[in-house]
Records
---
Amino acid sequence: MSDSPHIPVLMDEVLDALAIQPGEIHVDGTFGAGGYSRAMAARGAQVIALDRDPDAIAEGQAVIAASNGAIRLIAGTFSAMDRLLADAGVATVSGVTLDIGVSSMQLDRAERGFSFQRDGALDMRMSRAGMSAADFLNDADEEEIANILYHYGDERQSRRVARFIVAARPLTTTSAFASVVRRALGHKPHEKKDPATRAFQAVRIHVNGELDELERGLEAAEAVLEPGGRIAIVTFHSLEDRIVKQFLRQRSGGEAGGSRHRPDVTSDGPSARAPSFQKPARAVRPGDAETAANPRARSATLRSAVRTAAPPWGKHMVNEGLRT
């Protein structure tokens, strides 16, 4: 499927958190190359896999054919898993797994535009539909670009970078975008960390609505998990991890208030609601052996929890505007 096939991160730890029993139905909300799905099926699960990337859907058909009916693959976002499962005739499931962020296949294919390591079209769309990175960078005003770079990329000189981007428009390739960011920040070729990484992350998150997708996906998972069902989420940067951490703390009754993106605004507050999850397990991170074998695992964090019998809290949070 790729010169560098996607290697599932924290595989053993995810499977331990899911505690799969033969015959259970589990959702792999981020199918990718099918690594988690295959491992879950090998443990005896009936897997319903989702992916919004049409490449993953097309290339995953070989995995589905080899699964002898153990894996079903559905095109769609994991934020819509409750609706997609209902359409498939499934009301509740025993487990939900999410591997958040960009996959190795997307990063390694220059034409997808997710990485500046290989020059390609400035795209970054996971679903290959809607606004591309080029559309955003060439059409948005300077203030909006600066806000996105600051909020999603933690770029402290976001206004300067945005000014350089606007002056260099139109931008059509990943190398051109990276070059502009480097010029704006005075990056030297010998410096180890490339500042374009932060800008690419920020624009990718914005183009794909990744943080809203994650928050809606957590709510959808809460809705479909049966009592005793397990959720396991692997994230790769602090924005994602904070959303998952606060969601699970909140839903387990351990913390008042919402995430930094969607603060709690209900009148009754979390303390008035029965916890929909048990206390989350301790966060797990890759060991030295895994990071040596797969450098992309370095920043991964696994968080997991078990569903209670309480009703789901539902769409409990509201959007917060971008910080400026």
---
Amino acid sequence: MNDSETPQPGPAYPQAVTLAEVSANLDAVRRRMHDACLRVGRHPATVRLLPVTKTLPDARIELAWQAGCRDFGENKVQEAAAKAEALQSLPDIRWSVIGHLQTNKAKVVARFASEFQALDSLRLAEALDRHLQQQGRALSVMVQVNTSGEASKYGMPPEQLVPFLRDIARLDTLKVKGLMTLAMLSSDTSRVRGCFRSLHALRDRARQESPQGDALVDLSMGMSGDFETAIEEGATLVRVGQAIFGARALPDSHYWPETHLEISP
């Protein structure tokens, strides 16, 4: 399975390797977010941009920090932890883990992450809670739902969401903020839109039927190829990497952090 940011069919993304280029791309993405909000009568301040820095070297992330970004999203926990260690001197930098997490890596997330967007099982929730208690901290989380029905995507089936939210209500360290999904990879915008619309409806139902109630605010949905559609369907957070930093030239396994960090399982 793969929860990477695979762009929907669309334009190529040139590499942004200078502060001016990263800043220009951030401005362009924010303008598109602004326009998408206005098209459906939403206030632009209701949508948060999360730059996704998967496979990027530390220096490129620092450019985005210099351009004003403080929150960054990473798919792989070991890569995220290494970058958090290497860039810890940057004031106010925060890390959101947005990719699938194995239970035996829960303790790594509990050490450093400010947000985890891919909660998809009770076993993982209990592991996170246990390690967070040991760390004496809480964690903002979102529940990942598979709205496309594709076997290639992580996330729980929609019908399991409300029972799951009831099960984890007892875990005080997990502050459930909302839901996350990845839309199907399709050139048919109506099918992509349907995934986002389904998550919005699920969130509204869960607010009525789960113990978390009105705390379920966020809808994390939309990436470089489809974030405008996601905003039109109610996204409160969009995860954008390639439209800011350019197309990824290397596979995940080729990332080598500038500061090596050993992480035990």
---
Amino acid sequence: MEASPNTLPPAPLSPSDERTWAMMAHLSVLANLVTGFLGPVAALIIYLVFKERSRYVAYHSMQSFVFQMIGWVGGGALTGIAWAFTGISSMALIGLLCIPFACLISLIPLGALIYGIIGAIQCSQGQDFRYWLVGDWVRSTLTGT
């Protein structure tokens, strides 16, 4: 389907709006506290809505989406597996020894939540925030370099 000649490209966002939407993408991690899973969905929606209007918002929303999929969804699954193994094997002594490790693994989603809030604060201040191990990969994926 071809665009009609009267169709204008979407207007770019102002720097203030860019900071606000980038911050909202990072704060979408808070939706996980209520729903358990809608944080990545919110970040992806922000990406899809603003990717043509702001590279800054596109980068931060995609970064937030990928980080939440790893930290919240992956960390939550790993936590469930660790506690299931600990519970099943607690009939033997090995299960009791696994409790400290399961407790540490349970901190992964909490760490993702705190890291997302830090990203939101830095974006609201106009800083270029990058998640460790995720930010550079997302940037290279989006820019093709």
---
Amino acid sequence: MQTSKNTILITGGATGIGLGLAEQFLKQDNTVIICGRRENRLKEAKEKLPALHTRVCDITKIADRINLVSWVLESFPKLNIVINNAGIQHNFNLNSPVDISAVEKECDTNFIAAIKDDVFEASRTSI
């Protein structure tokens, strides 16, 4: 794999592993786009790494996913790598009732949002 001159989108890129990956990819002369739910975290990441391109996006929301795809394809037509790093984790006490909405949010963020076909359809109409 070519490790430089790529255009890379990292979901969940404002903190943790995503931000660490963004930093390393920037050091290797790549264009790096990160997205995340929290605008304040994206601003902090941009302050730390001014070369980053940022976008607020909650990947569990269909409109956010479609807007992200449209924006990236228009603004960064050379996009060639996507790293789906967005994720959340809740701690559940299985000895008491579980909040099913929290379970659904975790599953939607960590898995389902990444494979929904609405993003594919949006990208096909934007090309």
